[in-house]
Write a structure and sequence with these properties.
Helices cover about 35% and strands about 25% of the residues. The protein is α+β, with helices and mostly antiparallel strands. It has one domain: OB fold (Dihydrolipoamide Acetyltransferase, E2P) (Beta Barrel). Strand 6 and strand 7 form a beta hairpin.
């Protein structure tokens, strides 16, 4: 029995069992903010983790409100301790995580302030209570015309990226 447990423990540590290693927690200090939905966390072992906030999409840096979204995330998180529950890695190698600062959901704060869209494309990955909170926060920010919602023509970042790819290069 001990042998089986030892093998299972090794397999889990190596991530070779289905679902093993799929979710982990990164605790550390925010040492960089790249844009309105991406930050860098330095963990206790001095490893850097590039983290994409789960459930939202913020304007691109060169998009209207992109710099404001980055400043909002920077003001909320820079040099502060966070806990990130990470469930996957995106195509750019960033961990996609639910990030908490004390008792606050960092991504939800970005939506509440009007600096990010609730990313409905992946809402099925959110717990139902988060899905409802994010949708309500976006609706309220739109009604108050906070942040990017001050502009009636705000373009979602996924559309901005699609349009940028389609634009002819001169």
């Amino acid at each position: 029995m001990k042998g089986v447990l030892r093998i299972l423990a090794c397999a889990l540590a190596l991530g070779v069992l289905p679902g093993a290693g799929a979710s982990d927690v990164i605790a550390g200090k925010v040492v960089g903010v790249q844009d309105g939905d991406t930050l860098t966390v330095l963990d206790g072992e001095q490893r850097r983790h590039r983290i994409r906030l789960a459930g939202i999409d913020a304007p691109e840096k060169d998009q209207p409100f992109g710099q404001a979204a980055r400043r909002s995330l920077y003001a909320a998180t820079y040099r502060k301790s966070v806990h990130a529950q990470c469930d996957k890695t995106d195509r750019y190698g960033r961990r996609v995580c639910r990030v908490r600062l004390a008792d606050r959901d960092v991504a939800l704060r970005q939506v509440e302030r009007g600096f990010a869209w609730h990313l409905r494309q992946f809402e099925h990955e959110q717990p139902p209570e988060d899905r409802a909170r994010y949708a309500a926060a976006e609706r309220k920010a739109r009604e108050r015309r906070d942040g990017l919602w001050a502009d009636d023509r705000s373009v979602p970042p996924w559309e901005w990226r699609r349009l940028a790819k389609a634009a002819p290069v001169h």
